[in-house]
Amino acid sequence: MRLYPLRLWSSDVEFSFMTFRNYSYMISIALMLISIISLGVFKLNFGIDFVGGINIEISSKKPIQLAQMRKNLEKINLKEVLIQSIGENEIGIKVASGKDHDTSSIIDRIKKSINTEFENNRIKYERVDFVGPQVGSQMIWSGIMSVTLAFAAIVAYIWIRFEWRFGIGIILSLVHDIILCLGFASWMQLDFNLSSIAALLTIVGYSVNDSVVIYDRIRENLHKWSHKNIIEIINMSINQTLSRTTLTVLTTLIANLALIVYGGKAIQEFSLLMFFGILVGTFSSIFIAAPILPMFKLEKI
């Protein structure tokens, strides 16, 4: 039995993407301005990894459910709490203390709440310490460096595989994606932590992958249809890869939606940022990375 590739529509479909490229540029610029304003007004809601906080590790004779511990600590109105299993009958608790809070008072409240709720579990505090904001500043710098190095590596790869014009297209689309994702995180007041950096790097990789598929088809069509102008070739290339792009984004969004709905608070905000970033990355690969190439006099490779 012969298997045929799954397609949402024929590769011969002809949507005139290049006709609307100027409108897509205006939409993108407007969204970037809104995102920058959001960053200025609401700012990023930096989490424990970046602003510092309290780190507590406990062990118990009996198992404690993470959801049960989270529900218990929610009663004392802490700013941000991250709870995770770190071993058999061992739980790690990270709490953002904030600039205007007394650290020792917060620790006392946490201990009192845990001891009252789980008095029969024979709780033992293996570790209780405080991570200062200076460590958080180092983490912010490390996060910036990781994104910058990813940018540089991606541009170098595109430059080697294709040419410099494609590299500029990738840079512009990725700057667009990162600014919109940061603006979304600030507007939604998502906890911005190391998981958020991981989400941004994943979004960057996803967006580049989409763009490279289109770029590869553009390069192929430039050789195959040398008599056609660049506008026709780019439009043809986007249409030829559209079914693949749509199927990929739909399957990824469905997986992310499941994490948002059923993943719990620990990964919900990570998945939400990923969901938005995938939509933005797909938009930029179709309406920015490829359509912008004629501005740099791309004719032949």
TrEMBL record:
- Where is this gene product found? Cell membrane
| Molecular function terms from GO | protein-transporting ATPase activity
Write down the Gene3D superfamilies for this protein, in alphabetical order: Multidrug efflux transporter AcrB transmembrane domain
Q: Which GO terms describe its cellular component?
A: plasma membrane
Instruction: Give UniProt keywords alphabetically.
Output: Cell membrane, Membrane, Protein transport, Translocation, Transmembrane, Transmembrane helix, Transport
Look up and give the membrane topology term.
Multi-pass membrane protein
- SUPFAM superfamilies registered for this protein in UniProt: Multidrug efflux transporter AcrB transmembrane domain
Q: For this UniProt entry, which segments traverse the membrane?
A: 23-42, 139-159, 166-188, 245-264, 270-293
Q: Name one GO biological process term.
A: protein transport by the Sec complex
Annotated signal sequence range:
none
Looking at the record, the residues that make up the Protein export membrane protein SecD/SecF C-terminal domain are 113-296
Q: What does this protein do?
A: Part of the Sec protein translocase complex. Interacts with the SecYEG preprotein conducting channel. SecDF uses the proton motive force (PMF) to complete protein translocation after the ATP-dependent function of SecA.
Q: Describe the protein's quaternary organization and the partners it interacts with.
A: Forms a complex with SecD. Part of the essential Sec protein translocation apparatus which comprises SecA, SecYEG and auxiliary proteins SecDF-YajC and YidC.
PANTHER family named in the record: PROTEIN TRANSLOCASE SUBUNIT SECF, PROTEIN-EXPORT MEMBRANE PROTEIN SEC
Recorded family membership: Belongs to the SecD/SecF family. SecF subfamily.
What this protein is called in its record is Protein-export membrane protein SecF
Which organism does this sequence originate in? Candidatus Phycorickettsia trachydisci
Originating gene: secF
